[in-house]
Design goal:
The N and C termini lie far apart (about 50 Å). Strand 1 and strand 2 form a beta hairpin. Helix content is about 15%, strand content about 50%. The protein has one domain: Immunoglobulin-like (Sandwich), CATH 2.60.40.1890. Strands 1, 2, 3, 4, 5, 6, 7, 8, 9 and 10 form a 10-stranded mixed sheet that branches. The chain has 1 helix and 10 strands. By secondary structure, the protein is mostly beta strands. It is globular. The chain binds copper (II) ion. Copper (II) ion binds next to strand 8.
Length: about 140
Amino acid sequence: MRRTLTLIVLVTALAAGACSSTGDGIVVEDPWGRTSPMVTANGAFYMVLIGGEGADRLVAADTNACGTVELHQTIMNDGVMTMQPAEGGIEIPAEGEAVLEPGGYHVMCIDKTQEFEVGDVIPLTLTFDQADPQTVDVEIREG
Ligand SMILES: [Cu+2]
């Protein structure tokens, strides 16, 4: 147990050092969501996450526009499309891409607190396992 703790501290220190020296973190491309009226309780956000020098994971997301935010994946279950929480978050490969898109991984917005109309911009804070948190502007588009 002690060895594990030491390792975590070391890895965290290395990651922090790498970030501050190179400014190399996760790049978030094209965050967007679909329009939906207030009567629709839930929505989803999509984006492409581009990894830095080391592998990382998106572990949480949050915004005031939703009562609860979860990370989900869409799966086929006996020919029926269903969603389930993405266990352990969403992997972002080193210098690779994690794609969040309709029919795949997505940020699930549960109990929306506002309508999502074309042109709305929703600030969404992303929390990563390693990289510093980032707040991105999610653009609402015609679904
Ligand atoms: Cu979902």
